[in-house]
Amino acid sequence: MAEVTAKLIQELREMTSAGMMDCKAALTECAANIQDAADWLRQKGIVKAAKKADRVAAAGLVAPAVSEDGTLGVVVEVNAETDFVAKNEKFQKLVGDVVQTALKVYGECGCTCDGVCDCDEKCFSKLNDAMGDEVKNLIATIGENMNIRRASAVGGDAVYTYVHNALVPGMGQIGVIVALNGDIAKSAEIGPKIAMHIAANKPEFGTIAEVNPESVEREKKVFIESGATAGKPEMVVEKMVAGRIQKYYSESVLTEQPFVMDPDKTVKAVLADAGVTLAGFKYFLLGEGIAKREDNLADEVAKMLG
């Protein structure tokens, strides 16, 4: 049997625009015959779906979910090309299937490293493998490119969710999951509020301990080079820099932020009053970081005439 090489996979990908894993599977199925593999991809409907893959999918839905025992939370983002598709019941069903499958995949992993190891990447890969056919079938049905863009999980004694700008229950433009440890009875009241706070304030980090030292040093450098400390005595400069870093923490770190429902208290103080501590959180904003392509009518006409 001929060997399925990286070069063959790349050639088939260039020929069909199908995904790398689909190309590998096709070549393996067809004894490394590239033409047979291309036909196999067409027969499976994969090429039809793949031809849409160069179209930007920046719309869609974000959806969080919590396990039955309340100790694991996942959040997923599934993208499509237009808001119209996000309103489609078939697409919404797909998103629901994705988030429930994510709960199963991350639950089976059981990792509590919260992103320190590569479990998040492995689970996401398994999620895509599990949902790949369902995604491709819907692409062929609806006629738009779509994909599972990302997924993540947190675990703790209790997990809470919040969805902002919900299109349907449990799915919207912003999805938050937050895990707390401690007094579960008390956390039931404060947990949903913390999730809402995260949606409103979009913290980068959970606690000061999670802040990258390089980020702190960069913040110091920007502050000093802004000229704010120019001509000041060294002791004054040290206090000014310390104050700026504290301001940075209050803006970027969840536990240091003023609680949105009681700004006189920090989130850390509010959690302490409830007898709980932060175990982790995830915040997903639909389409964040995706470069959206904008075409004008002249470009569309030129493409048609070309």
Brief synopsis:
By secondary structure, the protein is an alpha+beta fold. It has helices spanning 6-16, 20-29, 34-43, 46-50, 83-86, 89-109, 119-142, 184-201, 213-225, 234-252, 267-273, 297-305, and strands at 59-66, 72-80, 146-155, 158-164, 174-182, 258-259, 262-266, 276-285. The protein has 12 helices and 8 strands.
Structural summary, described in words:
The structure is a single chain. By secondary structure, this protein is an alpha+beta fold. It contains twelve helices and eight strands. The strands form three sheets. It has a three-stranded antiparallel beta sheet. Helix 1 (about 5-15) crosses helix 2 (about 20-30), helix 2 (about 20-30) crosses helix 3 (about 35-45) and helix 9 packs across helix 10 (about 235-250). The protein is globular.
Q: Give the mean pLDDT.
A: 85
Instruction: Strand order, main sheet: write it out.
Output: 1-2-3
Percentage of β-strand residues: 15-25%
Radius of gyration: 24 Å
Please give the alpha-carbon distance between the first and last residues: 43 Å
Largest sheet: 3 strands, antiparallel
What is the string of helix and strand elements? HHHHEEHHHEEEHHHEEHEH
Helix vs. strand class: alpha+beta
Helix content: 40-55%
Total strand segments: 8
State the low-pLDDT regions, or none: 293-298, 300-306
Specify the number of helices.
12
Given the C-alpha coordinates, what overall shape results? globular
